[in-house]
Amino acid sequence: MKRYLLLEDGTTYEGTGYGYEGETNGEIVFTTSMSGYLETITDPSYAGEILIFAFPEIANYPLNLEHMESSKVQVAGIITKDAHSIYSGGESGTGFNEFLKQNMVPAIDGIDTRSLVEKIRESGAIKGYIKNKNEFPDKFEDTMDLDLVSMVSIKKYKYYNSGHKKQILFIDVGTKNSLIKRLSETASLHIVPYNYDFFNIKFHYDAIFLPNGPGNPGHSSLEPLRAFIREKSSSMPVMGVCLGNQLIALSMGGKTEKMKYGHRGINHAVLIGNRVYITSHNHGYAVNGDSLKGTGMEICGTDINDGTVEMIKHRELPVFSVQFHPEAYPGPYDSTWFFNDIKTTLGEKI
Ligand SMILES: NC(=O)CC[C@H](N)C(=O)O
């Protein structure tokens, strides 16, 4: 079945439809990852985004549902050059095509993804639709204006008792399962929704953790959360990853900005001190380094290619966070020391 990718700049790409048969829209972003397709598409940070796989061969190994980073596919749509298991069943008994149908996510195959990526690198982030008809919409919605965190955050408090004495207040702004798993190696987790009644918490906790999540970190729906972080950062450790990093920067008085086309992939070189770490990335926003002046926060890691701020920490307080993904999934384990830093910050032995 023919399907069309329609871009805000007036261009149309024709391909073969697979997955769900409805239409979808979102910001078109690309990942350069060559593996980890299931982990990637189930990462809640991708809500509101249509994902291009720049690497041509995708889904050329079976789906293993144990690798899902959340309970469902979170990308708004998928663009591939050659998605292999479209028509075949994997070890789980489900083919990629069928899996995307069940998750109601439309996809389009046979697209020259590399030229599409070049276009986005030239023009910057672009909005688009995947449709069954070559008919342009009246308007291209900016999905980054939506309250995406409310769509992916858990709805109710959940206690994750990992047997550890230390307690972390884990604010779910759209977390990946692997982050919960990693932190549970250090502490038990009070997992709360992004809009929890923060100023009336009755249970004890030793630190706050903010994970990854979708959309604009400056969204107004996140202001009560930022106010809470602002207050708590002077009295207890606050740590974060990706959206968490951006929320910490904003709470401490810094600024974030939208990047031209973001970083998404698993081989981004980041310089921290005098060492380079190969890291996993998925972000379209970044902390503005200059805006940290006078906030007490300092830049301690930057992307080698474009200088993007990739790690920040407070000069005196135990407040630190990374823009990259130390939990990997998918990606290299170069930066898992981040979880050891959290352990020692909480007074635990490595
Ligand atoms: N992975 C994330 O947490 C992404 C953070 C934010 N939504 C961004 O695009 O920059």
Structure write-up:
The protein has helices at residues 37-41, 96-102, 113-123, 148-152, 177-183, 223-232, 243-251, 337-345, and strands spanning 2-7, 12-19, 24-31, 49-53, 57-58, 77-79, 82-83, 106-109, 126-131, 158-160, 167-172, 188-193, 207-210, 238-241, 255-272, 275-288, 297-303, 309-314, 319-322. With 350 residues, it is an alpha/beta fold. It folds into two domains: 2-145, Glucose Oxidase, domain 1 (3-Layer(bba) Sandwich), CATH 3.50.30; 148-346, 3-Layer(aba) Sandwich (Rossmann fold). The chain has a ten-stranded mixed β-sheet, covered by helices on one side. The chain has a seven-stranded mixed barrel with strand order 1-2-8-6-4-3-9. Strands 5-7 form a two-stranded parallel sheet. A hairpin with a 5-residue loop joins strand 17 (297-303) and strand 18 (309-314). Helix 6 crosses helix 7. The protein is globular and about 60 Å long. The mean pLDDT is 96. Residues 1-131 form the Carbamoyl-phosphate synthase small subunit N-terminal domain. The active site is at residues 242, 325, 327. GO terms for molecular function: ATP binding; carbamoyl-phosphate synthase (glutamine-hydrolyzing) activity; glutaminase activity. This is Carbamoyl phosphate synthase small chain. Keywords: Amino-acid biosynthesis, Arginine biosynthesis, ATP-binding, Glutamine amidotransferase, Ligase, Nucleotide-binding, Pyrimidine biosynthesis.
